[in-house]
Amino acid sequence: KSANPQWREQFDFHYFSDRKDMLDIEVWRKDNKKHEELLGTCKVDITALPTKQTNRLELPLEKHPGSLLMLIAVAPCTGVSISDLCVCPLADPNERKQISQRYCIKNSFQDIKDIGFLQVKVLKAADLLAADFSGKSDPFCVLELGNDSLQTHTVYKNLNPEWNKVFTFPIKDIHDVLEVTVFDEDGDKPPDFLGKVAIPLLSV
């Protein structure tokens, strides 16, 4: 019930050099669980923003009244990676040695925000739900930790996909929960939900 909502939410997005650098934003109105209405969209060209500073942007909504006020900071990506199983970062003895030194007791107060990191190997899924008329699915896997999100590639026409990817996340809150969700890619339509598991970091 507000024409001037304040969300005050912060999100971290990781984009790599081979990805498009346009941030797409949509504003929706929700009457009830079933009815939603698009109130406007806008785009931000990330490559045009100055780096290593917080940019205050007032973005008019395209073809609709109203605007969005946002703070966007572009900074080098640290502590986040996607790699193949054969080049797993923790498999390198030198890397393990550096990590042991970084998190040893005598260095534990050098950076209070550096709690640690989580490395997840996404190997495969088995016996997934068939989402297509062909009796198959086009599954991909999304990993979310706090407001960090990374995803695998899509394996087409397969109910037992193998991804064999290694994901590394910085940990910002030891009470966070790792959420692993499998979706079926459906062309231009929103992906279909195939299943989910939640793993509290404190249980690892």
From TrEMBL:
<feature type="domain" description="C2">
    <location>
        <begin position="93"/>
        <end position="204"/>
    </location>
</feature>
<dbReference type="InterPro" id="IPR035892">
    <property type="entry name" value="C2_domain_sf"/>
</dbReference>
<keyword id="KW-1133">Transmembrane helix</keyword>
<dbReference type="InterPro" id="IPR000008">
    <property type="entry name" value="C2_dom"/>
</dbReference>
<protein>
    <submittedName>
        <fullName>MCTP2 protein</fullName>
    </submittedName>
</protein>
<feature type="domain" description="C2">
    <location>
        <begin position="1"/>
        <end position="59"/>
    </location>
</feature>
<keyword id="KW-0677">Repeat</keyword>
<keyword id="KW-0812">Transmembrane</keyword>
<dbReference type="GO" id="GO:0005509">
    <property type="term" value="F:calcium ion binding"/>
</dbReference>
<keyword id="KW-0106">Calcium</keyword>
<comment type="similarity">
    <text>Belongs to the MCTP family.</text>
</comment>
<dbReference type="GO" id="GO:0030672">
    <property type="term" value="C:synaptic vesicle membrane"/>
</dbReference>
<dbReference type="Pfam" id="PF00168">
    <property type="entry name" value="C2"/>
</dbReference>
<dbReference type="GO" id="GO:0046928">
    <property type="term" value="P:regulation of neurotransmitter secretion"/>
</dbReference>
<keyword id="KW-0472">Membrane</keyword>
<keyword id="KW-0479">Metal-binding</keyword>
